[in-house]
Amino acid sequence: MEKAGAVSAAPVPFEEGTPMMRPMFVEFPEDRACETLDKQYMLGDSLLVAPIFKESGEVEYYVPEGKWQNILTGETVEGGKWQKETYDYFHMPLLARPNTILAVGNNSERPDYDYAEGITLYLVNMEDGKATETAVTDLQGNTVLTVKARRNGKTVTVCAEGRTKHVTYKIMGNEELEVAVE
């Protein structure tokens, strides 16, 4: 998701009326293969989820163009084609879109905690010359952290505003890149 221009805070989907869980064709209206997909969905604008409905663990799903990152296995998946895989009960296809900043909290015990405290921001398959941004909100929906990233060559430059204490940045999918925090 490339954003142009200077924006003080990334738009939060619920403020725009965009559902958090949506069909593939809503996020990829130009991709005709997404028109009839009914067994996978986008979670937010960055995560592709393909639930497994067969006891055998087999799943067949479509990945739109780009280099997607399976966040459970660490594998890079080339898009623009169908994938057929088998998973156990503890895994499933959960792919992060290219050029994504994926915010992962540090508390797996409860859903209501300070999301910005100890957060890890994964910079996923950043393409050269591309920019992206994300926002982290508090429990009331107020933006407490805005992060922008741009890749130039082998460096991803990150600019964060707000509650930046205890934030960790990690590269996912382009391990040869370096992070420069402004």
Automatic annotation (TrEMBL):
It comes from the Bacteria. Residues 17-102 form the Glycosyl hydrolase family 31 C-terminal domain. Signal peptide: none annotated. Pfam families: Glyco_hydro_31_3rd. This is Glycosyl hydrolase family 31 C-terminal domain-containing protein. It comes from Blautia hansenii.
